[in-house]
From TrEMBL:
Start and end residues of each CoA-binding domain: 84-185
Alphabetically ordered keywords of this record: Cytoplasm, DNA-binding, NAD, Repressor, Transcription, Transcription regulation
Source organism per UniProt: Psychrobacillus insolitus
Subunit and interaction comment: Homodimer.
DNA-binding region: 21-60
Record function comment: Modulates transcription in response to changes in cellular NADH/NAD(+) redox state.
Residues annotated to bind NAD(+): 95-100
Designated name of the protein: Redox-sensing transcriptional repressor Rex
Localization in the cell: Cytoplasm
Gene Ontology BP annotations: negative regulation of DNA-templated transcription; response to redox state
Record-linked NCBIfam families: PRK05472.1-3, PRK05472.1-5, PRK05472.2-3, PRK05472.2-4, PRK05472.2-5
Gene that this sequence comes from: rex
Major site of localization recorded for this protein: cytoplasm
Similarity field: Belongs to the transcriptional regulatory Rex family.
Amino acid sequence: MKPEPPKVPRIPQATTKRLPLYYRFLQSFNNAGQTRVSSQELSEAMKIDSATIRRDFSHFGALGKKGYGYDVANLLEFFRHTLDQDEASNVALVGVGSLGSAFLKYNFQKNHNTKIVIAFDNKAPVEGKLMSDIPVFNPSVMEEKLAEYGVEIVIFTIPSRSAQEVADRLSKTPIKGILNFAPIRLVVPDHIRVQSIDLSVELQTLIYLIRNELA
């Protein structure tokens, strides 16, 4: 029987977003044969100040020892369970345009516990077709296929004009989360968590930071 992920206290969202990064860099240290690592070494590798790293880790209790640092294997195991890396999550993609097609080709297969198993697009036939070895169906059969493929998470790469309508349909299904690339704030019931990524906002933020650093 797979062990339960460790129960952790409520932590800040900014810390939550860094957890997969810690796991990725710890994998790199482990693959290089390094047995222990300091917060300073993590800081230099990740370009995150060491105080932030220590503060993030403090939310989970005593993960390291003063004067020793962190045991790489133990820390990697801890974050593997915390992020539930042993349990794969089936993902569906809605919208196979330029961005959606890129997701299908990448498909999170390396060092991730998620995999796109199905996609939906208005131009796809009801009976489905293969794109990058992923079955793509017409959205008219979305609810049926989500249940058939055991999907927990859905990625939206669709226009904002149709995003809320699709979200309304998904609210009546057992899905748990939406990764939303549509530039719209989705309204969903409490059992669905939404993570929105507005590429135009991210780009504007980057431009602002660059210009103010050079000012």
